[in-house]
Amino acid sequence: MATVSVKRSVTALATSAAALLALATPALASDVSAQAINLRTPFDCGQVWNANTRTNHNPQLSVDFQRSDANNKNVRSSAAGKVVTRRDLGNTSYGRYLVIDHGGGWQTLYAHLNSFNVSLGQSVSTGTIIGKVGSTGGSTGPHLHYEQKLNGAVQRVVLNGKAVVYYGNTSITSSTGC
Ligand SMILES: [Zn+2]
After folding, report:
1. Which partner for 111 in 18, 27, 145, 167 could form a disulfide, CB atoms 3.0-4.6 Å apart?
2. Residue 143 annotated in active site
3. What stretches of 47-165 show up as alpha helix (H) in DSSP?
């Protein structure tokens, strides 16, 4: 009899745990995909930037980070990872740009850089200085073109858990490395 009663309570526990999981799974699944990695604002602690999004941007979900004295500001890695692309496209497209792979299918891209502070294949930490803001490639003024990609597809940008406005402007104060 004692054995039977233990079995019953274990079964009851398993059943309620399964019910809870079934309830929680849809919400959890979307939270996990959006927050699998905490990508941080790619600038010095305390610096304020305007994150601009617009429907005619290419790729459309990219962000242009702007401020009046943007030129040569530090660009910092949004998370730990490895530099998988370091290229100079000259006067076209991204100009000097970097891609950092963060694992789990996540990559971030930083374009129009004046200069690079990392080499191809280098491992970086969250907030490592990877380059300087510039206006290289098809850019008309100093700013940082920035993308967050999951499995190769550009995503709506989320910085330290805060979603950037689509389409419009979001004022963001960097807390990276604070
Ligand atoms: Zn851009």
Report:
1. 145
2. yes
3. none
